[in-house]
Amino acid sequence: MQSLTGRTALVTGGSRGIGAAVVRRLAADGAAVMVNYRSDEAAARSLADELTASGARVALARADVSEPGAPQRLVAETVAAFGRLDIAVSNAGIEHFGALETLTEQDFQRVFSVNVAGQLFTAQAAAAVMEAGGRIVLTSSVSARIGVRHHALYAASKAAVRALALNLAPELGERGITINAIAPGGTRTDMAAEHAARYTPASLADVAPGDIVRGMTSAGRWAEPEEVAAAVRFLVSGDASYVSGSTLAVDGGWM
């Protein structure tokens, strides 16, 4: 793939996990990167310092993408810092588990405001300033296509992201911009570690959560964040110029 030198990227939720791996990959390949974070300033600054020391161009922007106007401010800050925006990777998201009878309107609003509205308006703001050749990547999940106990609200939000990518593709294609989504499976991140036990069916309660995930994949293991970042790297490259509206599974064969 061609170098990303001269290209500018915005990565939401970029301070840890998959987001941080995406930031490292894009920066290593030459892109200037705006790293968005919501609360973990220490992690974001550590990442920025690491990459700046290696010669990369990195800036930080604190924002909660679910707040009205936040995605627009992030895009404006990116353009102010680097002069343009070519790549937007919408990675910010929150997990949720809850039995049907426990779900509240507040749960719905929080999950959908981050996982759906945050991604939709990030795409909207990015597309407004992108030129032809722009690349937008949203983050769905394997959960949109498989049934997991007590996971309905989260899964519904990630299914909506698949629909966003599919239905925005024709509209953005008229302007030479592609939009796709990735659908990671079990990935070795701190967020996954926090919720791994939730993926264990009650009938398999004596089996370690990690063994459950490994057993559900053809690869027989969890993904590393860098492997998901590699899929993002493809989708933002010139090699993916004829790929739009797709959701690329990075799930080791889980689905």
Automatic annotation (TrEMBL):
Keywords: Oxidoreductase. Belongs to the short-chain dehydrogenases/reductases (SDR) family. InterPro entries: KR_dom, NAD(P)-bd_dom_sf, Sc_DH/Rdtase_CS, SDR_fam. SUPFAM superfamilies: NAD(P)-binding Rossmann-fold domains. It holds the Pfam family adh_short_C2. Residues 7-185 form the Ketoreductase domain. This is SDR family NAD(P)-dependent oxidoreductase. The lineage of its organism: Bacteria, Bacillati, Actinomycetota, Actinomycetes, Kitasatosporales. The keyword Oxidoreductase applies. It comes from Streptantibioticus silvisoli.
